[in-house]
């Protein structure tokens, strides 16, 4: 595919997607949504179901034929967004089922850019759990190295990503990797790190509650109360009072 075709595909899809999003806009919702998300970037006022429908309609009409074009469109959508929903649309395109086979290690630098420039939970969490998590499942050796590096990074959102990258793995969770990614942040006071630690442990407790109970008891002096509460929610709900003794 030539460069001209690539540029044409990306220009048309981005243009049509923005047109579709503006057609769904509800200005009355935009202000409250921006306030709730504490966002400097304005909203169009589109709730998630309508946004997903609009995105899928455009994605079907304008298919992308190569990983390079898909990555180009993602980058354009993300970097030139004027409204927060345009970046949500980029996340929808990143996870669109037609392009699952396009997700290769070459996309990792763009995901890193999206995490560091997005720098808020509504962007970072789906990228961590689904996009970075997918790369981890497909390319475990290089991605485990990257996640251990990110777990110690100065950027808090990269740390949060490392903590949450196995959120959907269930029985396939690499427990050693999980603990290695938790360790550098256990004593941090940052809310988003403490919450992520508890969330990651809570998800793993769904498949191995005994191990999470053990871990929380052993590391109780290091874990914040917030992290402990989040980690033990499921087991306490199941009546496991031994989890707090």
Structure description:
By secondary structure, the chain is mainly α. It has a domain at 1-102: Alpha Horseshoe (Leucine-rich Repeat Variant), CATH 1.25.10.90. Helices cover 68% and strands 0% of the residues. It has helices at 3-24, 27-37, 48-61, 67-79, 84-94, 108-118, 121-138, 140-150, 156-164, 175-182, 191-205, 209-218, 225-237. The longest helix has 22 residues, at 3-24. The protein is globular. It starts with a helix and ends in an 8-residue tail after the last helix. 39% of the residues are buried.
Q: What would you say about this model in short?
A:
This protein is mostly helical. Helix content is 68%, strand content 0%. It has helices spanning 3-24, 27-37, 48-61, 67-79, 84-94, 108-118, 121-138, 140-150, 156-164, 175-182, 191-205, 209-218, 225-237.
